[in-house]
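In this section we walk through a basic example: taking a raw amino acid sequence and producing a predicted 3D structure, encoded as discrete structure tokens. The instruction is simple. Fold the sequence below.
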Amino acid sequence: MVGQGALRECLLNPEITSVVSIVRAPSGQTHPKLREIVHRDFLDYSAMEDQLTGLDACFFCLGVASFGMSEEQYRVITHDYTLAAAKTLVRLNPQMVFEYVSGSGTNAASRTMWARVKGTTENELLALGFRAAYMLRPGFIVPLHGIRSKTRLYRLFYAPMTPILPLLERLELTRGKRNWGYPFRRGLVEITKSDFEAISAAMAAKL
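The resulting token sequence is shown next.
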């Protein structure tokens, strides 16, 4: 889902002249700027290194939910796949900017398995020597423009929220705020009369 959004924005941006997208299966997308490479082994890029030169930036969006996975399994996908790609790219493109989609709460010293693995991955990426490396830590992702997650668990999570998402840019509580979810951590949240009416109308309820 994140990768789909990043690809969409890159293709729409007139300042970006060429996009290389490495995928596990064909996406079906075509665009004059897009060069899509289907690749199976995310631990070894040696056979395609000639196609990975002359790049300015990388959005690394590959990821998986840790639910039902052992730490060893999760580490291979989250850490090993990421570092294999990053080490190849920094060697071929030392002036590259690398952006890694991580997650809120990431910490290499965490007792939580997924946060610990992602935190370790972040630290190792920062030490590789890219011109710049950014660790992006979203807490909640709102899918837009018809984009849907390929992960069934995420699709089940977002399904009941579909009627709510269009409200986020209309409510005083959330409109234009990047971290609007923080107040909910403290429990009860006061909302304005206009927000209450907007939510009520969206739910087709009588005041």
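Looking at the output, two observations stand out. The first helix runs from residue 2 to 12. The chain has two domains: 2-136, 163-202. In the next section we compare this with other chains.
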